[in-house]
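TA notes, week 10

Several of you asked for a full example with nothing omitted. So below is the full record: structure tokens for the whole chain, then the designed sequence directly under it. When grading your own attempts, check the secondary structure regions first.
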């Protein structure tokens, strides 16, 4: 008998291509901290394909969310966004564990429809602006007047 318990279960897809172990560990810890399941998928993709990979994985996820990690680059995508407009697309230094954990937490919070945990210092303006732009894009799709 085949065990169907984990087939197509609701989870965040995490696509991996030689991820920095320290970053991967923290991203997964962030997801676990928020109590959201994930599924790891070992794949081969180029840096040019990482956004597309994350988008396709988000489309396949029953939660509509995916994270793709290649080396030190992390992309968080949501299936309600346009393919070329991921929620987060950053390179992290291998020691930026707190930022990696925050990405995992916020991926989970996206599903739970909870406010994102804030990135702590001013150098995170790029990430905040990416998130703001993506959220506005989703809201515009629902024909809301957002400025």
């Amino acid at each position: 008998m085949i065990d169907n318990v984990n087939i197509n279960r609701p989870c965040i897809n995490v696509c991996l291509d030689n991820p920095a172990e320290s970053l991967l560990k923290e991203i997964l810890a962030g997801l676990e901290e928020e109590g959201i399941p994930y599924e790891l998928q070992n794949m081969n993709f180029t840096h040019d394909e990482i956004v597309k990979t994350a988008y396709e994985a988000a489309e396949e996820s029953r939660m509509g969310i995916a994270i793709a990690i290649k080396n030190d680059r992390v992309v968080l995508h949501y299936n309600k966004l346009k393919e070329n407009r991921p929620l987060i697309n950053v390179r992290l230094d291998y020691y930026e564990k707190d930022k990696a954990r925050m990405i995992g937490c916020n991926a989970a919070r996206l599903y739970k429809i909870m406010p994102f945990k804030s990135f702590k210092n001013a150098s995170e303006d790029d990430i905040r602006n990416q998130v703001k732009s993506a959220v506005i894009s989703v809201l515009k799709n629902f024909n809301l007047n957002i400025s």
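Residues 87 and 132 are 9 Å apart (CA to CA). Use that as a sanity check on your answer.
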